[in-house]
Specification:
209 residues; alpha/beta; Rossmann fold; 8-stranded mixed β-sheet; 21% strand
Amino acid sequence: MLCFFSAKGGVGCSVAAASAAVLSSQQRRTLLVDLHGDQGDILGAAPVDEGIGEWFQADEAPPDALHRMEVSLSEGLSLLPRGSIRSVTRPDRYRLLAAILANEQRQVVVDVGTAGIPSVAVLSEAERAVLVTRACFLGIQAAMRGPRPDEIVLINEPGRALGRCQIADSIKAPVSVLVPWDQSVSRAVDSGELLSRLPRSLRSLNVLL
């Protein structure tokens, strides 16, 4: 299970998770799990009424209900959407979800989003927890107070004062992937073409798979 998370919003965590899932699906069957809520829009999936949020909220939470909620995006890629319920604080359900995903036979990529306390249970079961960040001072400060990642994906914006080595030293984790800031990524997301036409700048995420 490969989990992507961020210390603050707007850094590119969901796009990084979506891109990694697309790349993974070209090699093996992959399940993309959307704890944040943006993956459907990013990958051009039709809106759904039920997802993980409804499973969290239900009185009973059978594992097979999650499979019934999956949406097929391509031959090798399925999405487990967040659903219409976004705000749920059920640590017990997060722990159960983590255990179910850890036993999944497919490659699992999880978009944790901004890691809150309940979602730490999912990060703790991850084979690798990957922090996505930009070289932003406030973002790095927040990351230093949050869960410790195994690796870092750095979205490399021009003109930032902080460098790769400074960020790795501050967060105590290696910067495994340097993704250049690229306008074609925004265009691909806005047009719903990330699944069919993944920008070259995002293919560097393949080293995580």
